[in-house]
Design brief:
heterodimer, A: 772 residues, alpha+beta, Aldehyde Oxidoreductase, domain 4, Aldehyde Oxidoreductase, domain 3, 3 domains, seven-stranded mixed sheet, 29 strands, B: 162 residues, Ubiquitin-like (UB roll), DNA polymerase, domain 1, 2 domains, five-stranded mixed sheet, 38% helix, globular
C-alpha cells in the first residue's frame, strides 16, 4: 500500500492520501468508533411540531427508567446565550419554543443507547401549538406568524437588516442598472425554483464529550472546524473558551453540514450535567431532520444583451428559505449575489435578495454555497440569449468571459485567470453536436461555466523541527476526506525540500493547533497553504542561521539541499543535515526550531468606487478559480427520464498540488451535482420532512454514474497562492445542473426552470415545448 | 422497551466469540458495540447504503439487516477478517493509488463487496463492477476512481497469477 515514495517535495505529484492504510484496513476511527471506559450513551428528543411554545416538561417517567443518568432540556439553558455565524439567534437546544419538526428538545444520557432511546420516548413535553410558516414568501407577508418574536434584538456580525421573519437582506448595485435596459436589443427573463438538497455525508453527525476532574470538557465530533465547534458550544452555553477543548476523529465527509454545530452544544450540556463521558450519534433519519440542508431559492433573473451578444445588464433577485435559524444563510445570500453574474463581464447589475425565517430545519452551507442555484438560472439565460441571437453557446461565452486584467463583480482584482483556456479544452474535447440516436431517445449537449473563491478568513501553521530533523506540521485544518492533510504535507515538504514521509501532520486540537476558521469555502489549500509556506520559510531562515554558524559562512550563501540539508551554494560536499542542526538547536544553541505564521485573508470584496452594497456579509473574500463543464445527456422522450452519458470539465485551479486528489474533487462534485440536477429533493408534508431516509431520498449510485467524466486542469499559476495553487473543492458542482439543463434543451427544445429535473418534470416541459 | 440480553456464540473472522445480544440486536450492533469490530459502518441502518457490508457464510450481506441471534452457527467475516486475502491487498493498493476513497466511511463495505466480486469473477469488466457495487453509496468520489481501482486490482492479481 505504501509503495509510493517521492525523493523530495512532491507538489504536483499524486501522493496517495496519508490515511490510506488506516482507511483501507477499516481501522480509521470516526466519531461512532470512539469508545471510552464507563461512557454513557445519549439519545435526543425531537420536536413533533413545526412551531409550538413549550409550556413545560415532565421528565419523571424517563428519569425513573433504570440506567438513565441525566436529561437536559431548554430549562437548563440561559435563553440569553445564543450562537450563530452571522446572527446569534440559536440556542443549544430548543428554549421556550420549538421552530421546526425534528429540532432537539431534550437529550438523555443513559448506560446504553437502547435505554437512552427508550427514555427519550418517555420524556413528555407540554406544547402549545402555534401556526407554522413554511413558505418564505408567506413568511415575509404582513401578519405572518413570527418564527422569532424579537429577531431584531439578536446580536449580528454585520448589517443584516434582521426584522420579523426577515433574517437578512443584501443589495449590490454596479453601473447604472436602471437605465441600462434601454441599451439592450434582447432581454431574457425567468423565474427559477431550486430545491432543498440533503448533504448526505455517509457518516451521520455525532459527538463525544469527556469531562475531566476539573470540569473542563474535551469534545470530539464529526466536524469541519474544531474552532467553529468551540465557538458555537461556548456561545450557546455561556462557557468560557478556556473550559472547552475540541478535537477531531476522522470525519466521514462534510459538505457544509458539519461546519456549524449539530449535536455538540446539547451534548456538552448533557455531559456537564452528568459529569460523565457521553457519546451521541444521530440516526440517519435524525440527521436528515435536525442538521441542515441546501437552500431552496426562488430566483428571479433577467439578462440583457446587445445584438452582437455583448452582455449589458442583469437583475437578480433571490428569496432564500432560511429555515428556523440564521446559521450560514446570510452568507449564502451574499455569496450567491457576489457570484450571480458568473465569470462574465456585465457592466450594469442590480443583485439583491432576502432570507426568510420559516419553520423548517436550518438551511446552510452546502458545497457551492448558493452558486449552483444562481448558475442554474444564469447559464440557462446565457444560452437563451445566444439562441435568440443565433450565436453558438461557446461563442457568446467567449465574447463575455472575464479575461486577464478584468475585475470581479464588485470591483476586486483577479490575479490569475485561465478561463479562456478552459473553454478551449471544452471545444476540443466535447464539440457541441451530440450523436443522433434515433427512436424515442434523443441526445443533446450543454455547457456551463462558473467560478469559486479560494480566500476567506483566518488560518495559521506551526512547523516544528523534531530532534532527528524531521518535521511536525500543525495547522488545525480538519481533513474531511478531501485530502488537505496530504496536500498541506506536500506543500510543507516542498517548501523545505524533504520527502513527504519526513513530515508528520498533527491532528487538529483547539489546545495545540493555530486557529483555522474551517474546512469550508474551498479555502484550505489556499489560505492554510500560504501559512504552511510562510511557517516553513521561518524554519528555513533559522536553519540557515544555524548552518552559517556551523560552516562559518554568510547565510546568503546557503541553500536547502533536497533530502534535508543546508548546503553552501555550488559546493557539493559542504552541507549540514537537518538532524545535525536540530540536535544543536535542541541541546546547545538557540533552542528548538519552530516556524509559525497566522493571517487573515484581507482582499476587499468590493471596491466602493465601483459598487454600492447594503448588507455585505463578507468584507474580505476572493481569489477566483474557474471552470467550464460540458455534458451529453440522453432524454427518453416517452418517460422524460434523463441520463447523463458523459461529462467533460476543464478547470483553472492554479497549480495543482495533487492531481489525483484534485480530479477526485471534480468527479465527486460532478456526481453530487448530477443528483442535485436530476433526482434529489427533500420533500415536506406540511411541516414534516416526508423522505428522511435513504429508502426515499435517493442519490446517484454507480449505476447512474456517467460512462465517462473527463477532468482537465489547465496550466495556471496564482501569484498569491502556495506554489501557485487556488481552490478546487466546490468549483466542480457549480455548473452541473445548468449544463444538464442546457443539454436537455439542446436535446429536446424544452427549458426547465425547476430543480430537480425529474422525469415527470421533463415530460411536462416536453409537452409544453411541443405545444409552443 | 429494552429486551433482555442472551448470550450467543458468534463465529467471527474464524474465532468463536461469546457475546450478549438482545432479540432485536442486529449483527452490526453486536460487531461494533460488543466486539469492537468497527470497520463495518452504520450509514443508514436500513440496508440501503452498504457501509455495513460483511460476509455471512460467504455471501455479502448487510449486517444492519441481519439479526445477531440468527447468525449463530454462521461464519461471519468482516473487513478485519480479510486482512490476509491477496485480493484485499490488491484492492487496497489500487484504491490508494487511484484515489478511490476520500472520507473512507463507505470504503470498508465497498472493499468487502469488491473482494467477493474478485473471488467470483477474477477479471470483471466495467459493467460487472458497476453491477456488483451499485448497492454501495459513496458521496465523495463520484465512483469513477472506484471502478478504475477495482479493475486495476483485478489486473494486478492476474499478472501475479501468471
Amino acid at each position: 500500500m505504501s509503495a509510493w515514495r517521492s525523493e523530495v517535495g512532491a507538489v504536483g505529484e499524486a501522493v496517495p492520501a496519508l490515511e490510506s492504510e488506516e482507511k483501507l484496513s477499516g481501522r480509521a476511527q470516526y466519531i461512532a468508533d470512539l469508545y471510552r471506559p464507563g461512557m454513557l450513551h445519549a439519545a435526543i428528543v425531537q420536536s413533533p411540531h413545526a412551531h409550538a411554545r413549550i409550556r413545560g416538561y415532565d421528565l419523571s417517567r424517563a428519569l425513573a427508567l433504570p440506567g438513565v443518568r441525566a436529561i437536559v432540556t431548554g430549562e437548563d439553558l440561559d435563553p440569553a446565550h445564543r450562537m450563530g455565524a452571522f446572527i446569534k439567534d440559536e440556542p443549544a437546544l430548543a428554549v421556550e419554543k420549538v421552530r421546526y419538526v425534528g429540532e432537539i428538545v431534550a437529550a438523555v444520557a443513559a448506560d446504553t443507547e437502547a435505554i437512552a432511546r427508550d427514555a427519550a420516548r418517555l420524556v413528555r413535553v407540554d406544547y402549545e401549538v402555534l401556526s407554522p410558516v413554511l413558505d418564505p414568501a408567506q413568511a415575509l407577508a404582513p401578519g405572518a406568524p413570527l418564527v422569532h418574536e424579537q429577531s431584531d434584538r439578536y446580536a449580528r456580525v454585520f448589517d443584516a437588516g434582521t426584522l420579523g421573519n426577515l433574517c437578512s437582506r443584501t443589495d449590490f448595485r454596479e453601473g447604472d442598472p436602471d437605465a441600462a435596459w434601454a441599451q439592450c436589443d434582447v432581454v431574457v427573463e425567468g423565474t427559477y425554483q431550486t430545491q432543498a438538497q440533503a448533504h448526505l455525508s455517509l457518516e451521520p453527525c455525532g459527538a463525544l464529550a469527556e469531562v475531566d476532574p476539573s470540569g473542563r470538557v474535551t469534545l470530539w465530533s464529526a466536524n469541519q472546524s474544531v474552532f467553529r465547534v468551540q465557538a458555537n458550544v461556548c456561545e450557546s452555553l455561556g462557557l468560557p473558551m478556556t473550559r472547552l477543548r475540541c478535537m477531531t476523529p476522522r470525519v466521514g465527509a462534510g459538505f457544509g453540514n458539519k461546519m456549524e454545530p449539530h449535536v455538540q452544544p446539547a451534548l456538552v450540556k448533557l455531559a456537564l450535567k452528568a459529569r460523565r463521558c457521553v457519546k451521541l450519534v444521530l440516526s440517519r433519519e435524525e440527521d436528515f431532520e435536525t442538521v441542515r440542508a441546501r437552500h431552496p431559492i426562488t430566483i428571479r433573473m433577467r439578462t440583457g444583451a446587445m445584438r452582437d451578444g455583448t452582455l449589458v445588464a442583469r437583475e437578480t433577485e433571490l428569496l432564500l428559505d432560511g429555515g428556523a435559524y440564521g446559521d450560514d444563510s446570510p452568507g449564502v445570500l451574499g455569496y450567491a449575489l457576489l457570484m450571480n453574474c458568473g465569470p462574465y463581464n456585465i457592466p450594469h447589475v442590480h443583485a439583491h435578495g432576502r432570507v426568510a425565517y420559516t419553520n423548517k430545519l436550518r438551511f446552510g452551507a452546502f458545497r457551492g454555497f448558493g452558486v449552483p442555484q444562481v448558475t442554474f438560472a444564469s447559464e440557462q439565460q446565457i444560452d437563451e440569449i445566444a439562441q435568440r441571437l443565433s450565436l453558438a453557446p461557446m461563442e457568446i461565452r467567449r465574447r463575455n468571459i472575464k479575461r486577464p486584467g478584468d475585475v470581479w463583480f464588485g470591483g476586486q482584482q483577479i490575479h490569475s485567470n485561465e478561463l479562456a483556456a478552459c473553454l478551449d479544452v471544452i471545444d476540443r474535447e466535447m464539440p457541441p453536436a451530440a450523436p443522433d440516436t434515433g427512436g424515442p431517445m434523443t441526445r443533446g449537449r450543454g455547457v456551463a461555466i462558473s467560478a469559486h473563491i479560494s480566500g476567506l478568513l483566518a488560518s495559521g501553521a506551526i512547523v516544528r523541527m523534531l530532534e532527528d530533523g524531521s518535521l511536525l506540521l500543525n495547522t488545525g485544518a480538519v481533513d474531511i476526506g478531501q485530502g488537505s492533510n496530504t496536500a498541506l504535507t506536500q506543500i510543507c515538504a516542498e517548501a523545505l525540500q524533504v520527502p513527504v514521509d519526513r513530515v508528520a501532520i498533527a491532528s487538529p486540537d483547539t489546545d495545540g493547533s493555530p486557529y483555522n476558521w474551517g474546512t469550508t469555502a474551498s479555502r484550505v489549500t489556499y489560505v492554510t497553504g500560504r501559512s504552511v509556506v510562510a511557517a516553513a520559510g521561518e524554519v528555513e531562515k533559522k536553519l540557515k542561521e544555524h548552518a552559517s554558524q556551523m560552516m562559518e559562512c554568510d547565510p546568503a550563501d546557503l541553500e536547502l539541499r533536497p533530502g534535508g540539508a543546508v548546503a553552501l551554494k555550488g559546493v557539493p560536499g559542504k552541507a549540514v543535515t537537518f538532524a545535525d542542526i536540530s540536535g544543536r538547536a535542541h541541546w546547545a544553541v538557540g533552542g528548538p526550531i519552530i516556524g509559525s505564521h497566522t493571517w487573515v485573508f484581507d482582499q476587499k470584496t468590493v471596491d466602493p468606487k465601483r459598487a454600492l452594497v447594503l448588507g455585505l456579509p463578507f468584507q474580505q473574500i476572493g481569489i477566483f478559480s474557474f471552470s467550464a463543464v460540458a455534458v451529453e445527456v440522453e432524454v427518453d422522450t416517452v418517460t422524460g427520464k434523463v441520463r447523463v452519458v458523459q461529462a467533460c470539465s476543464a478547470s483553472d485551479v492554479g497549480r495543482v498540488i495533487n492531481p489525483v486528489m484534485a480530479s477526485g474533487q471534480v468527479e465527486g462534485a460532478f456526481v453530487q451535482g448530477m443528483g442535485y440536477a436530476l433526482i434529489e429533493e427533500m420533500v415536506w408534508d406540511g411541516g414534516r420532512l416526508a423522505n428522511p431516509t435513504l429508502m426515499d431520498y435517493k442519490i446517484p449510485t454507480m449505476a447512474e454514474q456517467p460512462e465517462s467524466i473527463r477532468v482537465f486542469f489547465v496550466d495556471s499559476h496564482e501569484p498569491t497562492g502556495p506554489f501557485g495553487a487556488k481552490s478546487v473543492g466546490e468549483l466542480g458542482i457549480n455548473g452541473v445542473a445548468a449544463a444538464i439543463a442546457n443539454a436537455i434543451h439542446d436535446a429536446t427544445g424544452a427549458r426547465l426552470s425547476r430543480l430537480p429535473m425529474t422525469g415527470e418534470r421533463v415530460l411536462a416541459a416536453l409537452r409544453g415545448a411541443e405545444r409552443a | 422497551m429494552t429486551a433482555a440480553l442472551m448470550n450467543i456464540v458468534l463465529r467471527v473472522n474464524g474465532e468463536d466469540a461469546a457475546v450478549p445480544a438482545g432479540l432485536h440486536d442486529t449483527l452490526l450492533t453486536v460487531l461494533r458495540d460488543r466486539l469492537q469490530l468497527t470497520a463495518a459502518k452504520r450509514g443508514c441502518n436500513q440496508g440501503v447504503c452498504g457501509a455495513c457490508t460483511v460476509r455471512i457464510d460467504g455471501t455479502t450481506m448487510r449486517s444492519c439487516l441481519s439479526l445477531a441471534q440468527a447468525c449463530e452457527g454462521s461464519e461471519v467475516t468482516t473487513l478485519e477478517g480479510l486482512e490476509t486475502s491477496p485480493r484485499l491487498k490488491a484492492l487496497q493498493a489500487a484504491f490508494a493509488a487511484h484515489g478511490a476513497f476520500q472520507c473512507g466511511f463507505c470504503t470498508p463495505g465497498l472493499l468487502v463487496s469488491a473482494e467477493a466480486l474478485l473471488e467470483d469473477e477474477p477479471r470483471p469488466d466495467e459493467a460487472a463492477v458497476r453491477k456488483a457495487l451499485s448497492g454501495h453509496l459513496c458521496r465523495c468520489t463520484g465512483y469513477a476512481k472506484i471502478i478504475q481501482a477495482v479493475q486495476a486490482a483485478a489486473r494486478s492479481l492476474s499478472e501475479v497469477g501468471k
